[in-house]
Each structure stands twice: as structure tokens, then as C-alpha cells.
Amino acid sequence: MNRRDSLLAALVATIWGFNFVVIDWGMHDVPPLLFAAVRFAAVVFPAILFVPRPQAPWRTLAAVGAFMSLGQFGFLYVAMAAGMPPGLAALVLQAQVVFTVVIAAAVLRERPSRAQVSGVALGTAGLVVVAVGRGGHVPATALVLCLLGALSWGIGNVVSRASGVPGGLSLTVWSAVVVPVPLLALSLLLDGPAEISAAAAAFSWQAVVSTLYTAGLASLVGYGVFNTLLSRNASASVVPWVLLAPVVAMGSAWLLLGQAPNAAETLGGLVLIAGVLVALRPPGRGSVGPERGAAGLQAGDRDAERRAGDVVEPDLVEEVDRGRVATVLPADAEVQVRPR
Predict the structure, then answer these.
(1) Which of 125, 147, 2 minimizes the C-alpha distance to 76?
(2) In angstroms, how far is the first alpha carbon of the chain from the final one?
(3) Which long-range contacts (CB under 8 A, 24 or more apart) does 208-211 make?
(4) What confidence score (pLDDT) does residue 72 get?
(5) Which of 9, 67, 84, 177 has the most beta carbons within 10 angstroms of its beta carbon?
């Protein structure tokens, strides 16, 4: 990657990391599920008027939206409202890599590589350290809800991979169509019409700015830039930058909100990130067959895809496994699979 692309990758990671602090800042007087519904309404409109629909049946778009957006962010927003600090939330959501590898092995019969097995073990150990050593300001319920968000994200990864849906910005926008109404219905059921009406009437400028940031910058601009970077660089050069997002989230939460992680949370987070890096490690040059697993797409593989006439539009980590290209994404991300 040249210097310009490196700076763009760092900028996207910063936008995504700061996104968690912005959510926490804007959600104070708004029920979490209502706030998430407003965000995804802003993702859909007006972008849906300009972004072409992906070539996929509605049931597939609905399934991807249900897990990748409705489940992931519904649980995330409720977890943060329940006391999950934004920095720690960004970190715990990286457990989606662990969940994706395990679910893909069980459901799709994808044999994990040795690096993936080691990465899953490390990541699980890191989560255990975070759970056991979390500070008193992190309720167990909030941690469980955040893990459920990561689990929903992992399921969404596998659903999208199995369906062969083309990914990218179009999937982000069109799968979000199914998200706002269920979130609003759940908010009405759990919070009540009176609280919803009061929150809508008192929707503050902070909530508006937060929604514009999360929908406009994090979802639309962030993925547009990131897809462009992946289209002209090897994924192994782009992907590691995304792991700056939890660092940015924890650092900005510390500086702006005074939410300093304790020693156990820091140690567990480092172990979790190490596990993610190991699981996403590119295989050796001589690696072939199933051992290649989901460790990453090399520049040569990308060139081969282009020569074969396939368009690869990943959002985070492209994987080569048994003749398929799959993608594991960050928060807000979508996953695609295209048969060779």
C-alpha cells in the first residue's frame, strides 16, 4: 500500500472505532432499540434511491439483515445502554471472528486451519479473562448482550457466505431495509408507546449528530472507502488496519468519557486481538488444500479472481477455502461469497 492508501485505511479504522463513543454519546435520552431503528432508517434512505440492489432474493437479504444488522446492533445498543463501555464493546465484538470460524466448521463443514484453531483458542481465553476480571462498572448482563451481538454477526457471516450474496455497499443498504420496523416494534413492546413518544419529541441534537455519524460516516462512507482500498490492494495489506478500531474506541472512551480499562480488561483484550490476528494470518506460500482455510486472500489469489472474471468486493477479510471466496467483516460490515 502506498502512503495515501495507508492514511485512508487508518482514517476508516478511526471512524469505525470512534463510532462506539458516538453511539454512547448520542443515546442517553433515547431508548436503545429506537435509536438503532433511526440509524438504520438513515442507512436505507436516501441511499436506496442511488445504490443498485444486489442480485439476491429478498429472503436472503432479509436473513443477512436480520443477523448482520438487526441482531448485531440490536444487542450492541441494548448492551451499551445496560452499561457496556464503548471501548470494551468494540473489543468484545471482535469475538465474531471466533464465532464465525466455529459456526462455519459446524454448519458448512469448512475445515479450520491450524492457525484458525489456535486463534479461536486464544480469542476464547481473552474473552474469559475479560469476563472474569471485568471492572464493577461492567454488568454481566451487558457483557452477555454484547457477546450475543457478536454471535449474531458470526451467524450473519455464515448465512451470507453460504448464500453466495455479492457483498459491499449494496448489501449494506438493501439488507438494512428489514431492520428499522422490527427494531421499532421491539422498542414499542419493551419501552412502551409513552416513552417512545417522549423520546421522539425530545430527540436531541446530540442524537441527530450521532445518527448522521453512524449512518453516514461509519456505514456508507466507511465501507465505500474500505471497499475501494481492497479493490486495489492485497487484503493482507489492508485488513490489519481494521484492528485499530478497538484501540481507537478504547482510547477515545478513556480520553473523552473517563472510562479507563482495568488491567484484566486490557490483558484480555490484547489476548483477544492476538487471537484474531492469528486466525486471520495468511498461510505460507506452500500451503494448499483445506489447510489454507480462512487465513486470508493473497495478492496472487486476488489477481486470479480478476482474471477469472469475478468481482471481489470484501469488507474485511477474504478467505479462500475449497474453491470459494468468503469474507469476515468488522462492525457494520457485510459478507459475500462468490463461487469460482
Answers:
(1) 147
(2) 26
(3) 208/26, 209/22, 209/26, 210/22, 210/23, 210/25, 210/26, 210/27, 210/35, 211/26, 211/35, 211/38, 211/39, 211/42
(4) 92
(5) 84
